[in-house]
UniProtKB/TrEMBL annotation:
Residues 11-69 form the Helicase HerA central domain. This is ATP-binding protein. GO terms for molecular function: ATP binding. The keyword ATP-binding applies. It comes from the Bacteria. Residues 486-506 are annotated as: Disordered. Keywords: ATP-binding, Nucleotide-binding.
Length: 506
């Protein structure tokens, strides 16, 4: 990393045990200008030949690693599904990557980072190779308190960071998080690090957090105010068993952004300065400068969906009078048929509910569906029913309504899985395999399916057992139903040109 800079050390080398770091994680703290980014760049350059790396880069500073060390730069201006799949492929092929979040607002950065971290976390067990995951400005992705972003974005981002620092070690993910403000970083994320590099900081609340993490007395924390740029205090099994002052060594690459430097002002006589400002040059074209009106704020997704639901072409009066009224059963049948068309599209199982809802509304308008279309909550409920593979007659029955009522107590992303199990249990079909359960919740990860099954069993919504062939049987105590035995590994991924129901998409 550099040299020992404390009194009596004589500029001895300061090393970092990379294998120990992979098992114990690292937290870097330092105010702006303390050399925190320089430290991360030194760590990445020195470890690049030995371990795969992924950098979550909010400002695009680390993209310069690509030219020297072969990192692949991933522009975050993609869908969350694309980022998840790219992250999974990076783990599969052991490619070092830089996720550049430059140009995105804070909420978009949080969502994209969460999707990318989730893709690495949910990778198949066969690809759990050691990987160094560096997150710069970690207080953005794991904030200690709610800010201006939505609660949903904060929850998703904080969950991904918690998975990285708390559960990532068993999956080969070693978190290295860096922050300017310890007080703004979620405590459960910071507390999982066993190695620390503390740089210059001035605020009492940050020094108190730093001294608490390092096990130092409060008066000893005053030393953080006196640290020079590029100097840090190291502690941890991969660094030093006692607090050790170190100076970070030189780096081979540089960031695109640089620290501000003082430059002398041009020596121009005062009368010339006046002319430069108020007298147009001959090359200028004199034209009135239009007054720019700031654009209105972009409408939210919910507003757009509400507008789409209300915008329908006017029907001719005579045509409306001639058409017979549609019964409730016919309307439900058409809605279900449109939903099946939506879900038969390639990749439909892995798209967000909002995207599917927009597709549904467009298809309703094409089919000239009379009356008001389903609202978003109603669409979610009907989508879960169709994904569970329940026909229209069964969906209107009293028994299925009981299943839907029990499912409403679960989180939205799990309700479809519960209804899938309920349909199999009601019809006494074999228990769905892990791949089918994962597809019902919009994922390809069988590990995620097993975690959802374990969660529902822990919450006592289901009870699992195996028969003598090690096939799974799931009982639903609230409904008194039970599936037949089914092989959890029997699922085969359908071809890309087939939808959720196995039919070829047109």
């Amino acid at each position: 990393m550099g040299t020992q800079s404390g009194a009596g050390f004589g500029n001895q080398p300061a090393t970092l045990d990379l294998e120990e770091l992979l098992a114990t994680r690292l937290l870097v703290q330092g105010n702006s200008g303390s050399g925190k980014s320089h430290l991360l760049r030194r760590l990445l350059e020195q470890s690049a030949p030995w371990v795969q790396q992924a950098i979550i880069d909010p400002e695009g500073d680390f993209v310069t690693l690509a030219d020297k060390f072969g990192h692949v730069v991933v522009d975050a201006s993609r869908t969350e599904g694309d980022l998840q799949r790219i992250a999974a492929r990076a783990r599969q092929h052991r490619v070092s990557v830089v996720l550049s979040l430059e140009g995105l607002d804070t909420e978009q950065q949080m969502r994209c980072a969460a999707a990318f971290l989730g893709g690495m976390f949910d990778a198949d067990r066969d690809y759990w190779y050691p990987m160094l995951v560096v997150v710069d400005e970690a207080q953005l992705f794991a904030p200690a308190a709610a800010g201006e972003v939505s609660d949903e974005a904060r929850k998703v981002s904080l969950g991904a960071m918690t998975n990285l620092m708390c559960r990532g070690r068993k999956r080969g993910l070693a978190g290295v998080i860096a922050t300017q403000r310890l007080a703004k970083l979620a405590k459960n994320v910071a507390a999982e690090a066993s190695n620390f590099l503390m740089g210059r900081t001035f605020l009492d609340i940050d020094m108190a957090r730093a001294s608490d993490l390092l096990g130092m007395e409060k008066r000893q924390a005053e030393m953080f105010r006196d640290l020079e740029r590029g100097h840090f205090v190291a502690l941890g099994p991969a660094l030093s068993r006692r607090p050790l002052p170190i100076k970070i060594g030189d780096v081979e690459t540089s960031a695109r952004s640089t620290s501000p430097r003082l430059l002398p002002l041009p020596e121009t006589p005062p009368e010339d300065i006046h002319d430069l400002l108020f007298v147009p040059s001959p090359e200028e074209i004199i034209r009135p400068t239009p007054r720019r009106v700031p654009p209105p704020p972009a409408p939210s997704t919910n507003d757009l969906l509400a507008q789409l639901a209300k915008t329908r072409p006017p029907e001719p009066a005579d045509k409306a009078d001639d058409e017979p009224a549609m019964s409730k059963e016919e309307r439900i049948a058409i809605i279900d048929s449109i939903l099946r068309e939506v879900l038969e599209e390639p990749e439909a199982s892995f798209r967000s509910v909002a995207v599917l809802y927009q597709d549904f509304l467009v298809r309703c308008r094409i089919r000239r569906m009379p009356g008001e279309p389903l609202n978003l909550p109603g669409f979610r409920r009907r989508l879960a029913v169709v994904r569970a593979g329940v026909d229209t007659d069964t969906a209107e029955g009293e028994e299925w309504n009981r299943a839907v009522e029990v499912a409403t107590a679960l989180p939205e992303d799990i309700q479809g899985v519960y209804l899938l199990l309920a349909r199999a249990a009601m019809q006494h079909d074999p228990c769905p395999p892990d791949g089918e359960i994962a597809r019902a919740c919009g994922s390809r990860s069988t590990g995620r399916a097993r975690r959802l099954i374990a969660y529902m069993e822990q919450q006592e919504y289901i009870v699992c057992r195996n028969d003598i062939r090690n096939h799974r049987i799931i009982a639903l105590p609230d409904l008194g139903w039970e599936t037949a035995a089914g092989d959890p590994n029997a699922y085969e991924e359908p071809p890309l040109n087939e939808g959720l129901f196995g039919a070829a998409a047109e």
